[in-house]
Specification:
The chain has 14 helices and no strands. By secondary structure, the chain is mostly helical. It has one domain (3-62, 75-317): MetI-like (MetI-like fold, Orthogonal Bundle). The longest helix is centred in the first third of the chain and has 38 residues, at 86-123. The protein is globular. The protein starts with a helix and ends with a helix.
Amino acid sequence: MTASAAAEGAPQRVEAGTSEWRLVLGRLRRKRLAMISLVIISVIYGAGILAPLLAPYPPTQTNLDRPVEGPSRDHLLGTDRLGRDELSRAMYSSRTTLIVTTAVVLSGGLVIGNTLGLLAGYRGGWVDTLIMRVGDVFSSLPSLVMLILINATLGPRVIGWTRWVEGHTPFDGLVASGFPSYMLVFSALSLFFWAGTARVIRSQVLQLRERDYIMAAESLGASPRRVILQHLLPNVSFLIILSLSATLGSIAGSEIVLTWFGVGVQPPAASFGAMLFEGSGTRTFQASPHLLLVPGVIVTLLLFAFALLGDALNDAIRGR
């Protein structure tokens, strides 16, 4: 194959990738469990997005005259110990999970994991070794324990830095809005969720960089940046989506667990972890089962939906 012929063949791979995407989506639409899972995720996260419009009460509005009430006409899913509406808190909790999950996927997966995976696979040598060894270190650590330690240790410092920013800039109300805990949670999660994506992308790039069309582009003087962005990135997009879809449930679950331990998203922000903690305990469940059932059912549905959708997407990409 000549260099010019190979260079002309490169765009065809992108077009083939586009048609392959259509095949994948067609296979995915034929999987009933995948569609049901997608509907569940869309409803839960859609309620979070529209919470300011749909929630019957503000999530922090208390009513000490009506604490720990069961479902009623005024409060469809009951109230908690402070008289806060459980339905409103659940909707805003899904909003919190959506914000954290999206931030971690964009920062840890797409930006860090994807970039380092492409760089390690294409450059090779000491660059590849360094990136992969750092990734191995993070992968070998007990992520949940490390996340708890990081958040517990750095939490007060981040709040202190945020107060300093409030005092020296026009940005007021950052601490009151829960901004420090958001930043800490998705920054800590990003540290532990980039390595898997980077490893998957790297393994595919190692194979692609030996293809004729890549070598032809290099022989024609294409810069490494152009080779990566125009020839490699379009052909690993499947793996990027597959890798990220496999981690969505883990990211959402990690945020909830961190908050349950008290080192995740902090009040006044609503979180499923906080709701689960408030409803935990045998006596609490016997007296007010809705405190645990409301967040528990939603979280279970969300995590199962992510798992089923990830498996279905994996099968669709592999042609099953």
